[in-house]
Amino acid sequence: MEIIKLHHPYRANEIPEDKVVLALGFFDGVHRGHREVIGRAKSIADKNNFKLAVMTFNQHPSIVFKKLNPDQHKYLSTVSRKEQLMEKIGVDYLYEVDFTSAFAGLNPQDFVDQYIVGLHAQTVVAGFDYTFGKKEVASMAHLPTYANNRFEVVVIEEQKLQEEKISSSRIRLALEIGDMAVANNLLGYAYATPGRVVHGDARGRLLGFPTANIEIENFVKLPRKGVYVVEILVGGIAYSGMASIGHNVTFEPNRPLTVEVYILDFSDDIYGEEVTVFWYDYLRDEEKYDSIDALVAQLKQDELDTAAFFEKNKDLPPKD
User: Fold this and answer.
1) Domain of 80, in residue numbers
2) Same-domain pairing of 39 and 152
3) SS3 sequence, the chain?
4) pLDDT digits (tens, 9 = 90+) for 217-229
């Protein structure tokens, strides 16, 4: 897969000359609904011997339009994670457009001329609710007019799971209540957060439960605070573990939020490693314990519950 980063206005020589089928969307999470869009585009591309191209943005459009606070908006997938998922699907060209005020200021016709026709699209595939400007004049219903017979338009209807729309918003809601089964079902794979192992206060080691402290980018959406069954990918190998998202309230108040993973049957030194945590099941909420002994007893129970989960659930959600 070739990743092409575009900043408006781009230069014509940045665009490959191949004819493409172009899938349009922000694709945060690359969930089941997104995969229906990209999968349809891939089928059309394969049938016509075209390349499969996907166009997305480096940040959510609503941030530029000041509908979202950039410090508060949390993404389901980082740009690098989105790239991994797109490559796995079989995308040939991934266009990552800088969503700037200049780009946002394009009128619908200029967007079509420069970012659809200019990318040599023979067919455009997008969801029914995709817009390329104000929806009153730039919805998928309007796209054939702007196309002026230069490319075909394929609209993917609303995708549902259990009678409700599959959406990034619905996945966020599931994460906020710790319902990983629903979140993973909507995604079509195990929710994942990439990060780096950093030094903590080593208190877990003193308790007999040494943890890897994971530094997560602050714009990544985490599940609700609590204890979870997870896998952690270290050096390309997935290990079973239990993770805590919380403030370590047993030890002192007002501690910063941390993500810590106790890896079962593991003793390697992994400081500085880039890792990915895959979230499978919510075990319990964060609690404050009256004594260290009570905390250790609970951690031992968490370890048993984690092992029991993996014993019972042999067919885990795929990792991508």
Assistant:
1) 2-164
2) yes
3) CEEEEECCCCCHHHCCCCCEEEEECCCCCCCHHHHHHHHHHHHHHHHHCCEEEEEEECCCHHHHCCCCCCCCCCECCCHHHHHHHHHHHCCCEEEEECCCHHHHCCCHHHHHHHHHHCCCEEEEEEECCCECCCCCCCECCCHHHHHCCCCEEEEECCCEECCEECCHHHHHHHHHCCCHHHHHHHHCCCEEEEEEEECCCCHHHHHCCCCEEEECCCCECCCCCEEEEEEEEECCEEEEEEEEEECCCCCCCCCCCEEEEEECCCCCCCCCCEEEEEEEEEEECCCCCCCHHHHHHHHHHHHHHHHHHHHHCCCCCCCC
4) 989 999 999 999 9
